[in-house]
Amino acid sequence: MGRIPTGISGEKYGIKYLWPHHRAMARDLVAGHTPGEVADKTGFTPAQITRIMQSPLFIAEMNMLEAGASVRAVDVHEDLREMSKKAVEVLDENLNSETISAGLKTKTAFDVLDRAGYGKKETPQQHLHLHAHEVRKVEEMSPEELYEDIIEMAEEEG
Questions:
Q1: Number of other CB atoms surrounding residue 28 within 10 Å
Q2: Residue 7 has pLDDT above 70, yes or no
Q3: In sequence order, what are the residues at sequence separation of 6 or more whose Cβ sits closer than 8 angstroms to the Cβ of residue 100?
Q4: Which of 79, 84, 76 is nearest to 92 (CA)?
Q5: Which of 48, 109, 116, 133 could pair covalently with 44 via S-S, beta carbons 3.0-4.6 A apart?
Q6: Domain limits, the chain
């Protein structure tokens, strides 16, 4: 029989080094995918994914990715905060500028109001329920009568 493969730390069936597919697995796990989802995506069995996840090399890779993700998330948040200050200044300049068309100013104003929660409210679709006798009445109407009634109802609502 052959030798039992051992990893760097001597654990049974441990991985000796990280292949690109191991790094992809680590990225997926850091992104929030479950081991089962990673197994489905990569073609490995859940048991294989579990063994890989227990490897010291893989654990170190996961820790490195998680630390990097936290730092990048903080940097992006700060960058967006700074950019939003500039964006508000640009919007303010555009709205007060003499050289920008009234149409662009109006569109900008509507976009700002929409993002602030003051956008156009859509009227919800209404559903009508007809009783059996009303359904029979509609079935007995000619297409012209039905059309006239629908137009009349629409004009009453509008």
A1: 17
A2: no
A3: 94
A4: 84
A5: 48
A6: 20-117, 129-158
d(C-alpha 86, C-alpha 88), whole Å: 5
Angle at 11 between CA 50 and CA 9, to 5 degrees: 115
pTM for the structure as a whole: 0.39
Per DSSP, helices labelled H in the chain are 20-30, 35-42, 46-53, 56-96, 102-113, 132-140, 143-157
The tokens for 127 are 């559903």
* Helix, strand, or coil (residue 33): coil
- Which is more confident, 103 or 25? 25
